[in-house]
Write a structure and sequence with these properties.
The structure is a single chain. The radius of gyration is 33 Å and the shape is elongated. It has helices at 18-25, 44-47, 51-57, 114-122, 132-140, 154-167, 179-193; strands spanning 2-12, 30-34, 37-41, 58-64, 67-81, 97-98, 105-108, 173-174, 198-204, 212-216, 222-225, 234-235, 239-241. The protein has two domains: 2-81, no CATH class; 97-241, Mannose-Binding Protein A, Chain A (Roll), CATH 3.10.100. The protein has seven helices and 13 strands. By secondary structure, it is of the alpha+beta class. The strands form four sheets. It has a four-stranded antiparallel β-sheet. A four-stranded mixed β-sheet has the order 11-10-9-12, with helices on one face.
Amino acid sequence: MGKVVFERLRFREGTRNKDGALQRRGTGGASLPIGQGRFTMLRPSDAALSEADRAAKVAMRQVLPGIKEIQIAVPVVAVEVPTPAVTAMIHIPLPAMIDDASLSVKVAARVVTGGQMAALVRGGYQITGHNRERLEAAIADETMADMGTGYVSLLDGRKLVEELNRQNPGRKFRLPQSEAELLDIFRAIGDKIGANLWIWTEEETFSTSGVFVIRCLHSGGRDVSNPGRRYSGHVVLLVEDR
């Protein structure tokens, strides 16, 4: 919370006639019965004060010859003002990339790690939906920060890609766009990627709208799934355009 401090307010001398003040100032006009006369306040919020409070806070002084001004001396008041939350940029560890000449893209040496997902969350990403608590538990184990993590949905992967590219201008990270692209990766460097995992692609099936192809490297298994689903073997593999 920020603080705005008010020390005093000043108002020009006005009419002694309250009705006249209201006519001249609009409904925000008001009168102060101070000293020998009444003085119109210019701010509607001050008109809401009780007469006793106004009388206690108003002092009149000479500013320039022939011009009077009311000075409302207000005890210093700290007003709490909401300030926007500022989230420091949490650096997401960059993946090591395999640059194989037979492929049109570079490929991450391992699937997205617990440390990368944990950094995404610390930066403000909110894990919601299916098996949320499973992913939270997986990335909470700091000893596994450098290891690939399951329970990652396609939606999680998209957000990670977006943030990595934002933090690293000029880099072109993305997810495998098609099943064919992922199979090419499997054939070229599958032995370097690792375990028996189900890797997401951005290929949406024609038969069922809103579900995407997910393939298992070692078994050759093929499935389709809702992009928000998270299971223990569901992982994200990053690629990068050259």
